Prior knowledge:
18% strand, 9 helices, globular, two-stranded parallel sheet, alpha/beta, 7-stranded parallel beta sheet
Amino acid sequence: MKGKKILVTGGTGQVARPVAEALAADNEVWCLGRFGTPGVERELNDRGITTHHWDMEDPSGDSLKGVPEDFTHVLHSAVRRGEDGDFNATVDVNATATGRLMQHCRLAESFLYVSTGAVYARQSLDHAYTETDPVDGVADWLPAYPVGKIATEGVVRAFARVLGLPATIARLNIAYGPGGYGGVPMLFFRRMLAGEPIAVPLSGQNWMSPLHTDDLVAHVPALWKAADVPAALVNWGGDEAVGISDCARLLEELTGVRANLVPTAVTRETYRFDPALRSELTGPCRVSWREGLRRTLEAHHPQHVRDRQGE
Length: 311
C-alpha cells in the first residue's frame, strides 16, 4: 500500500504496532492511544507516525477532537479487556468507543475491526472453527473479554450498514512475534523461566492457529480489501494447527528450560481455526510456527536459545 492515510488504534500493542510501523514507510499513518509505556510514543514518532492521545473510556468522546476525518483505511485493535470483571463497563466502553470511531471515520474506504476467536462456543479441543460456528462469549479465564467483543462486533455490523462504511471483522487467533511482549508463547516461556506451572486441560490439549507478525502484517491490506457492507467476517489465524502442550515442548527443545504442565479445570483457552476463508482472501502464510517460535525466542530471550548445530 502506498499513498494512503491510515488510522490505527492500539498502536502500541502486539497486533497494531508492527502494522503501523510497516505501513509508515509509504503511507501517512496515525496512531491513537493512551501511550502509557514510557518512550513508546517517541519511538512511534521516530518512525514517522503521528500520535494522538485517545482514551476509549472518555465519556464525552472529546479525545477524538483534532483527529482528521479523511482517513482512507482504519485498523481498530484497541480494547478494554475487562480484567476487573465488570461486564457492563467492558461492553459500554468498547461498543461506544467503536461507534464513535466509525462515525468519525465514516468517509474511509475500509474499516478493519480486530475481534477474537474467544467468542466461539467451545466444542472439542481440536475442533477447527469456521466463521459460521455458534458463539457464546464464555471464557472462564477472562469472562468479560469475549462478551465485550461480541457486543462490539454488533456495533461494527450496525454502523457499517448505517454509515455505508465497508468493514471487516477479523476474529484473531494467537498473534506472536519479535515485537511487543512476544505473544502468548512468550508468556508461557516466562512462566517456564520462573519455574511456574502452565495450566493445561485435564485431558487432551488446547489447540491454536498461531499467526506470526510477518504474516499478520502481510494480511492487513487483503483484509481491508475484503471489507464490505454488510460487514465481512473472517477468522484471522495461521495455516497450522498447533497444540499448546506441543508448543511448550518445542520451547523446551529450543532452550532446555523445563515446562511444568499442570492439568487443571480452568486454562487460558485457545481455538483452532479452519483457515480456508482467510487463505482465500490473503493467500498462504509464509512463516511456519516452528521457525516463527525460534525467531521470537531469539528476539526476546536470545541467551536461552540453543544454537542450531547444538540441537
